[in-house]
């Protein structure tokens, strides 16, 4: 005779289900609580709300801020990310400040862009194109017309105003010029040399006879000459560098890709809106154009010609 396992009654079934629910209730509540807290876990992954952009001191730092602030305000409005400008006191500081001050990008000159690319891996975004269609500049070597200086031989025993060791116009050009003139050691050839810190400073130091020879970028030279006729009347240009990219925005390679793309699109689209055109007019440009590492090939080549290894180059002024 086979024994049969008795089936539980309906009442006992209900009691068993109730017991199971009592066990599961705390687990279900814990799971629901975890679900409600999920947004907190992702809050740290939200897009950046502000970024810091550095400006190199090619002119008076107050004029630099005045020129770039309307552009920064426009970018802030269109990207939804607050753009904080940081005007740097010297060119050479920009590499250290990119790290120490937590900069996310900078409007680099051609040489500082090449340096930052080699040393920090920054990525070029865009640069301005001016009303005459140019998006490049070149360096100028100049003296007073009444100085009697016309070549390297005439510079012996004179005073030279460089801009900074991290500039194409205010450093690479003079070094290349000395090389073409057969001057091996400019320090012993010149009576004195120093760094003016800005292109504007180097130009006015020569104009005011504080230095005999100077070097600066042509765009600053020409802008100042429009305001001060003495610059064209009293200064003589002895040499110029190859054309190199105008100051362009470069950003750290780890910047959020969507934000990087938005910055590029906003800059490239400035000339398509009424407000954008107003900003461009204040900035002194016609539009912004796309820029990449390839645009700085001439700077890399120029540095090689005078024997500078950008990855190991000590760009700090003495």
Annotation keywords:
318 residues; alpha/beta; D-Maltodextrin-Binding Protein, domain 2; 2 domains; six-stranded mixed sheet; five-stranded mixed sheet; globular; disordered N terminus
Structural notes for this entry:
The model is unreliable at 1-45 (pLDDT under 50). The chain is an alpha/beta fold and 318 residues long. The protein folds into 2 domains: 50-135 and 245-305, D-Maltodextrin-Binding Protein, domain 2 (3-Layer(aba) Sandwich), CATH 3.40.190; 146-241, D-Maltodextrin-Binding Protein, domain 2, CATH 3.40.190.10. α3 links the parallel β1 (50-55) and β2. α3 runs antiparallel to α12 (274-283). The protein is built from 13 helices and 13 strands.
The CATH topology of the largest domain: D-Maltodextrin-Binding Protein, domain 2
Helix content: 40-55%
Please state the second-level CATH architecture of the largest domain: 3-Layer(aba) Sandwich
**Outline:** globular
CATH superfamily of the largest domain: Periplasmic binding protein-like II
What is the C-level CATH assignment of the largest domain? Alpha Beta
Report Rg: 31 Å
Q: What is the number of beta strands?
A: 13
Largest sheet: 6 strands, mixed
Strand content: 15-25%
Q: What spatial order of strands do you see in the largest sheet?
A: 2-1-3-12-4-13
| Low-confidence runs | 1-45
- What's the number of helices? 13
Task: Provide mean pLDDT, rounded.
Answer: 85
Give the tally of structural domains: 2
Provide the structure class: alpha/beta
